[in-house]
Amino acid sequence: MVGKIFLVGMGPGDKSMMTGQAIEAMESSDIIAGYTVYVDLVKDLFPEKDFFTTPMKQEIERCRKSFEFAREGKNVALICSGDAGVYGMASPVYELWEEYPEVDVCVIPGVTAAISGAAVLGAPINHDFCVISLSDLLTPWEQIEKRLKAAIDGDFSIVIYNPSSKKRADYLKKACDIMLSSGADEKRACGYVENIGRECTRAHVCTLSDLKNESVNMFTTVFIGNSRSKLIGDKLVTPRGYRINE
Amino acid sequence: MVGKIFLVGMGPGDKSMMTGQAIEAMESSDIIAGYTVYVDLVKDLFPEKDFFTTPMKQEIERCRKSFEFAREGKNVALICSGDAGVYGMASPVYELWEEYPEVDVCVIPGVTAAISGAAVLGAPINHDFCVISLSDLLTPWEQIEKRLKAAIDGDFSIVIYNPSSKKRADYLKKACDIMLSSGADEKRACGYVENIGRECTRAHVCTLSDLKNESVNMFTTVFIGNSRSKLIGDKLVTPRGYRINE
């Protein structure tokens, strides 16, 4: 019998932020596969499972191997931080699925960093919003620039994933400059969260012009408010609409 | 002693799609407050709790009453479908918080319909995306129109909340016309999901020009792919990037 692939969104990492479905999918799998760092987070929860890990940039190999395991009759939980369908393994798995049509694939939704980070900051995306990654590994920078501009044109709240890495230390600064030159006010309310859902969570609110000079890393999620967003105490709050509430 | 308000995102409704934190917050509360329909979904899970419900359009009264309960020393779980920070009660609660600064407020993130609906459809938002509500109750239609146009200009995948209601039966059609006239191809891959996470979940994929004539309701979440999205079998898949994968 052919096995099944569960694409499991594990949320920020802590078990308390996983859904019951996510835990059940891992429990009912023979193999838990994923990026080494995330598999290490669940090893203690499911010590009796087999594990298959690949390092970063070997994601496609990880997906293909999961199909091979399923073909051998094993159920595989392919785990992703946050949600598998937001910059995760869902689309590469479905693209490979054409070669393994006999395998059942099922996405188990999880709490992505836009949602878990927003909870820490207050209510930054309580109205229409965009999610944009600054990683230009798979996307040309010109496309990212175009999206940042469009997001300001539409007056969306903006969530930025992958704001920085060793090779891209100045990308958040570049992104802030694009948003400012697209018409966003220097005083636009912003914030960011580091290590969401872990012991060392760090949240900070500031203006867009200050954000430019903040030091962020690959574990930071950045939030830019829309033109109506405001700071209430240490919280970043975007009102639900443009009209005065009841 | 003053009580606490937990803004609980309960996901699509089924217990298996709630996080452990969300269940714990309801368990540790004296009162579960919310919109009647959602409170009914959790009454069976927590039969020993007190419940406080208000109908739709009395959200602000519900938030204020939660602060009053907290001031009396009660812990309150104010529950929202999906996530409290996405078109939910997080921002009105933080706005009222200025009047009740002694009350602790805490957002417990949940799986919003953009994430749970995407899981049903495959991988529609696996790259940069926007979330837009078509409800013009609190937002002027001109602003919604501007955002739809900006979302197409930036070539985002788009998730549409509140695509229709009795009074706004033709809003999805109007939105499709705006996206088409903003340069989106008629053949753009789209899909929608109705009653996510319940027994009667219904998913459908189609082109943007067909979407115009589909019948949707207030329990439907609509997904518009970006220019690279495609249908693979009955799944809507947006590739992770613009470059060819490894």
From TrEMBL, chains A, B:
Alphabetical keyword list: Cobalamin biosynthesis, Methyltransferase, S-adenosyl-L-methionine, Transferase
Metabolic or biological pathway: Cofactor biosynthesis; adenosylcobalamin biosynthesis
Alphabetized GO MF terms: methyltransferase activity
Any single biological process term in GO: methylation
InterPro entries: 4pyrrol_Mease, 4pyrrol_Methylase_sf, 4pyrrole_Mease_sub1, 4pyrrole_Mease_sub2, Cbl_synth_CobJ/CibH_dom, Precorrin_MeTrfase
Start and end residues of each Tetrapyrrole methylase domain: 4-211
Name of the protein in question: Precorrin-3B C17-methyltransferase
Organism per entry: Butyrivibrio proteoclasticus
